[in-house]
């Protein structure tokens, strides 16, 4: 569900949704100013052995903003998105991204896996997608 500008994040989950208390406590320990960087959300998920999606949902229910996407797609100031198209893309990377598409898009999780497989930064993969005109969807935290 996409929010309209100015709406609260918790509205994405319906009126009966409640934050997970253990996740909420960890978020409060590791964040300030109601912002939670993507990397911190993943650290919390790993530490608590929960899915990143659960951390994202709890952050939404606390009305915290997810920031500093590790793919560079959102959460940076002032420009929001910092990923840039790459000047060139290795053919093998291009082929792997193309084979990993679902409905013409690459999932966040697949982008991370490709980065790991090629031993390159996550933003190198998202930059390749920018160059190729491919959207990355299905954020592992539920941001998009």
Give the helix/strand layout.
Blueprint (H helix, E strand, L loop, with lengths): L20 H10 L4 E3 H11 L3 H10 L3 E3 L23 H9 L6 E2 H11 L3 H11 L3 E2 L7
Parallel strand pairs: 1-2, 3-4
Helix pairs in contact: 1-2, 2-3, 5-6
Question: In words, what does this structure look like?
Answer:
- The chain is mainly alpha-helical.
- Among the domains are: 18-67; 91-137.
- Helices cover 43% and strands 7% of the residues.
- It has six helices and four strands, in the order H-E-H-H-E-H-E-H-H-E.
- It has helices spanning 21-30, 38-48, 52-61, 91-99, 108-118, 122-132; strands at residues 35-37, 65-67, 106-107, 136-137.
- A two-stranded parallel ribbon has the order 1-2. A two-stranded parallel sheet has the order 3-4.
- The longest helix has 11 residues, at 38-48.
- It is elongated, with a radius of gyration of 16 Å.
- The mean pLDDT is 93.
List keywords for this structure.
two-stranded parallel sheet; 144 residues; 6 helices; 43% helix; mainly alpha
Number of strands: 4
Shape: elongated
Give the overall average pLDDT.
93
Task: Give unreliable regions as ranges.
Answer: none
Specify the biggest β-sheet.
2 strands, parallel
Helices, by number, come to: 6
Oligomer: single chain
Helix content: 40-55%
Strand-residue fraction? 5-15%
Strand-and-helix sequence, N→C?
HEHHEHEHHE
Structural class: mainly alpha
- Kindly report how far apart the N and C termini lie: 9 Å
Rg, Cα atoms, Å: 16 Å
Strand order of the largest sheet: 1-2
């Amino acid at each position: 569900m996409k929010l309209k500008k100015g709406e609260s994040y918790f509205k994405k989950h319906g009126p009966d949704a409640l934050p997970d208390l253990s996740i909420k406590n960890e978020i409060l320990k590791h964040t300030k100013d109601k912002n939670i960087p993507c990397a911190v959300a993943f650290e919390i998920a790993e530490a608590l052995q929960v899915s990143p999606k659960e951390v994202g949902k709890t952050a939404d229910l606390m009305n915290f903003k997810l920031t500093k996407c590790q793919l560079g797609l959102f959460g940076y100031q002032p420009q929001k998105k910092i990923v840039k198209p790459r000047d060139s893309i290795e053919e093998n990377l291009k082929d792997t991204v193309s084979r990993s598409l679902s409905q013409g898009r690459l999932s966040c999780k697949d982008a991370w896996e490709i980065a790991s497989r090629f031993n390159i930064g996550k933003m190198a993969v998202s930059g390749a997608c920018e160059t190729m005109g491919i959207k990355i969807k299905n954020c592992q935290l539920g941001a998009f």
